[in-house]
């Protein structure tokens, strides 16, 4: 199993100085830094440290995944934020768990004894509510459906139709924002009956820089996606399920 660590950055220079040296490079076939257009030295630092760097042509987290896909060499991808929210010390356990044959492994902030030190009252309630709604509508058993720190088969990005506009275009137009892929990934993976598990992992407070989350607009977009995907005859889910059924055990 070859693993790519996908490091998503946008003006993360100060936090990268602290976080990136904690990563055991030997765990990964590839460490790919995908940058959204940093102006603070992030790109230069990543290149100086020998990391492969791709600078996005379009802004937004969804564009980062879409544009990065052709550069990913691993058959498993782990998504990682270097702003301090993602624990580098969980990476060995995450890689080991993926080697057990799961389609996706989530590092949950809410699976005991883990906890989030970055949540506000609003984000904490929102994560609980939307995760619970996902479980009720889509038959999943998540404790954390939204977190970035997770590993999954790279092929899920195409099998679950996460790189096109299907599932994103309408809520992004309605709420005038770019929505990350993690909530829809969790929903569609559950509906496609993927093999999913979670491991506990704390979420420390971010170290430096500007918070990218747009709480209200993203929340409305997530609500739209979670409810909309509950309707039957979703082509993307049917196609993904067929792909998973044909895959050798």
Description of the structure:
It is a single chain. The chain is α/β, with parallel strands linked by helices. The protein is 38% helix and 14% strand. It has ten helices and seven strands. A seven-stranded mixed beta sheet has the order 3-2-1-4-6-5-7, sandwiched between helices. Helix 1 (13-19) links the parallel strand 1 (3-9) and strand 2. It is globular and about 50 Å long.
Summed up, the helix count is 10
Mean pLDDT: 91
Largest sheet: 7 strands, mixed
> What is the share of helical residues?
25-40%
**How would you describe the shape?**
globular
Question: How would you write the strand order of the largest sheet?
Answer: 3-2-1-4-6-5-7
Q: Calculate the terminal CA-CA distance, rounded to whole Å.
A: 15 Å
Number of strands: 7
Jot down its keywords.
7-stranded mixed sheet, 10 helices, alpha/beta, 249 residues, 14% strand
Summary of the model, kept short:
The protein is 38% helix and 14% strand. It has ten helices and seven strands. Helix 2 links the parallel strand 2 (30-35) and strand 3.
How do the helices and strands line up, and which of them pair or pack?
Layout: E1 3-9, H1 13-19, E2 30-35, H2 42-48, E3 52-55, H3 61-68, E4 76-80, H4 91-98, E5 104-108, H5 121-138, E6 150-153, H6 156-159, H7 169-175, H8 182-191, E7 196-200, H9 215-228, H10 235-246
Parallel strand pairs: 1-2, 1-4, 2-3, 5-7
Antiparallel strand pairs: 4-6, 5-6
């Amino acid at each position: 199993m070859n693993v790519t660590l996908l490091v998503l950055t946008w003006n993360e220079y100060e936090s990268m100085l602290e976080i990136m040296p904690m990563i055991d490079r030997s765990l990964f076939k590839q460490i790919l830094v995908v940058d959204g257009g940093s102006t603070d030295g992030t790109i230069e630092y990543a290149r100086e440290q020998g990391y492969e760097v791709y600078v996005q042509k379009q802004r937004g987290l969804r564009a980062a995944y879409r544009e990065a896909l052709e550069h990913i060499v691993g058959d498993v991808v782990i998504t990682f934020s270097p702003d301090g929210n993602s624990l580098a010390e969980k990476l060995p356990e995450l890689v080991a768990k993926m080697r057990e044959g799961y389609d996706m492994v989530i590092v949950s902030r809410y699976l005991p004894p883990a906890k989030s030190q970055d949540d506000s009252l609003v984000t904490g309630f929102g994560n609980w509510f939307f995760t619970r709604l996902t479980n009720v509508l889509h038959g999943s058993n998540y404790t954390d459906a939204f977190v970035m720190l997770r590993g999954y088969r790279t092929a899920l990005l195409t099998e679950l139709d996460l790189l096109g506009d299907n599932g994103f275009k309408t809520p992004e137009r309605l709420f005038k924002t770019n929505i990350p892929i993690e909530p829809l990934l969790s929903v569609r993976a559950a509906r496609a009956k993927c093999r999913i598990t979670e491991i506990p992992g704390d979420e420390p407070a971010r170290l430096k820089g500007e918070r990218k989350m747009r709480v209200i607009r993203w929340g409305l977009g997530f609500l739209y996606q979670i409810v909309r995907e509950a309707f039957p005859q979703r082509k993307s889910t049917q196609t993904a399920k067929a792909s998973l059924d044909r895959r050798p055990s």
